[in-house]
Specification:
Length: 499
């Protein structure tokens, strides 16, 4: 197993472990290791436990909440856990370090006709990282988040033992579960149930499956070394469209009509970009043409159909809705050819990627800069109100911003991009106010990126002190010495975000 020891050697030989897409600076560690199989992973965790070194688990490092960045201790990278094996027609067993891109090409070559639906657009994300954050993406509108597609996991616990979990084998009875290896686990009685799309704090629902406690636990309960994933049949036809309403009222009308579409339409994704995004894409053009200048919003939608007739019907329905709202169909991009799907995927992905790139450049000019992007979601019928609230907060604080995201799930990312160091505290203030607004509207502070270190300070907006203590108790019962993710201390939630 490859291992590098010493803070300076790590900085010199594997500095990439100290950076992720949050663009937070200041990460460091004393030991880094790259186990190549389950036994080596257990040995790596066991060594850290015996030396008292805290463990930060590192996957594809595409995370945006800075959960994979160590503050001392050891990093265990999953990047060498690369095995992929078909179990049967619907299930595949995958090492944690396999990227979404690698899994997709394996499925394309090997099985034909099957795909793995979770798609957080960033294809270099790892299976372990997406399970640990319960990643979503545009298609989660139809297919749900990662947890819906994880059938089993192998987890290395803090004492170096391996926990094998299959979905359906260990269910909580109400809020309690007694497990031979883990003892008694108790979930809290929550003052308000967790929103349907939520990645903030442990998954805590009566009668839930034990697998779901680990999905979305962000490396705080153990290292997910392998996962058994469910696969879906590729639909016969997929339609991708980008619509460019020139009036906000037209955008919101079309959004609501699509949101409440009838059963004839199998809508897979409903995404948005606002005027700030359009201006940003026009200033920082990629390979694709930027959206038209007069557009106020971009509405990206994707539908699927099982046969040609259903596709024709879906196209007619979509054209009807778009036309009824007064949008010129001539100005709509997209279609149903593979080249058009690639173009739309690239268009969708290029925005967050360019924003992150811009932040990385700004960080060179002023080191305290990092990603300031909200991840809140609200009930979709309240999205317009939430969007306006986000804009109001950012305008009042005089911050340049842009907003995009998974509109169909009431989930948007308001990104503040301060242009000087004086803007940093205002951006921090804005992120907290936006998180608070989401909670006030019955939503969550994080719907897909997880808490990491950046959203952890907002935990107290969503949970009571007792609920946070209960999460901490669950954690202690699995990891009494707090070996994993020491930089993520739930009980410290509510302080200022790290700069
Ligand atoms: C351009 C861009 C677009 C994105 N779009 C989306 C999107 O639409 N939806 C979305 O959900 N996310 C999105 N993301 C964020 C990111 O891709 C996801 O959070 C992803 O799930 C992180 O996976 P990773 O392998 O990179 O994990 P990392 O960044 O390495 O780690 C993330 C967290 O998981 C923990 N972890 C990693 N591996 C394991 C493991 N094996 N066991 C236990 N804990 C582990 C880490 O400690 C850390 O807390 C985007 C990122 C980028 C850069």
């Amino acid at each position: 197993m490859r291992t590098v020891e010493g803070r300076d050697s790590i900085r010199e030989l594997c500095a990439d472990l100290l950076e992720d897409e949050s663009n937070m600076s200041g990460a460091w560690c004393e030991l880094a290791s790259w186990p190549g199989n389950l036994e080596e992973t257990a040995a790596a965790v066991g060594r850290c436990a015996s030396e008292g070194l805290g463990v930060t688990v590192s996957g594809g490092l595409t995370g945006i909440a800075a959960g994979a960045l160590p503050e001392g201790g050891a990093v265990i990278s999953t990047s060498m856990l690369r095995d992929i094996e078909m179990l049967d027609r619907q299930r595949v067993r995958v090492g944690a370090g396999v990227t979404l891109e690698q899994l997709r090409s394996f499925l394309k070559e090997g099985t034909g006709g099957l795909f793995y639906p979770p798609d957080p657009t960033e294809e270099t994300a790892s299976i372990g990282g997406t399970a640990a954050t319960d990643a979503s993406g545009s298609d989660s509108f139809l297919y749900g988040s990662t947890r819906a597609w994880v059938d089993g996991i192998s987890v290395v616990l803090a004492d170096g033992s391996v926990l094998e979990l299959r979905r359906g084998e260990h269910l909580f009875e109400g809020l309690a579960l007694r497990h031979a290896q883990l003892g008694l686990l108790n979930l809290p009685v929550l003052g308000r149930p967790q929103p349907p799309k939520n990645a903030a704090g442990y998954h805590m629902r009566p009668d839930m499956d034990l697998v779901d406690l680990f999905i979305g636990s962000e490396g705080t309960l153990g290292l997910i070394a392998e996962a058994e994933l469910l696969l879906a049949a590729e639909p016969a036809h997929v339609i991708d469209l980008a619509v460019f309403p020139a009036e906000p009222s037209v955008f919101w009308e079309l959004y609501l009509r699509l949101l409440h579409h009838g059963p004839q339409l199998r809508l897979r994704a409903l995404e948005m970009m606002d005027r700030g995004c359009i201006r940003f894409l026009r200033r920082h053009p990629g390979e694709l043409p930027p959206p038209p200048e007069d557009a106020e919003f971009v509405l990206l939608l994707r539908a699927e159909a099982g046969n040609e007739d259903a596709m024709e019907e879906s196209l007619m329905l979509l054209e009807g809705m778009i036309g009824d709202c007064g949008v010129d169909p001539e100005g709509v991009w997209g279609g149903f050819e593979a080249s058009e799907h690639r173009k739309m995927k690239e268009f969708r992905h290029s925005l967050p990627e360019s924003v992150n790139h811009r932040i990385a450049l700004l960080r060179r000019e002023f080191p305290g800069m990092h990603k300031f992007g909200s991840d809140g979601a609200v009930p979709p019928d309240r999205l317009e109100e939430y969007y306006r609230t986000c804009c109001g907060i950012l305008e009042d604080l005089e911050l340049p911003f842009l907003v995009f995201g998974h509109a169909g799930q009431g989930h948007i990312h308001a990104n503040a991009i301060p242009e000087d160091p004086e803007g940093l505290p205002r951006a921090e203030e804005a992120m907290r106010a936006i998180a608070e607004a989401a909670v006030d509207m019955g939503g969550t502070i994080s719907a897909e990126h997880g808490l990491g270190r950046l959203k952890l300070p907002y935990l107290d907006l969503m949970y009571t002190e007792d609920e946070i203590r209960c999460m901490e108790r669950i954690r202690r019962s699995l990891d009494p010495c707090r070996l994993f993710a020491r930089a993520m201390d739930f009980s410290a939630g509510g302080g200022a975000a790290p700069g």
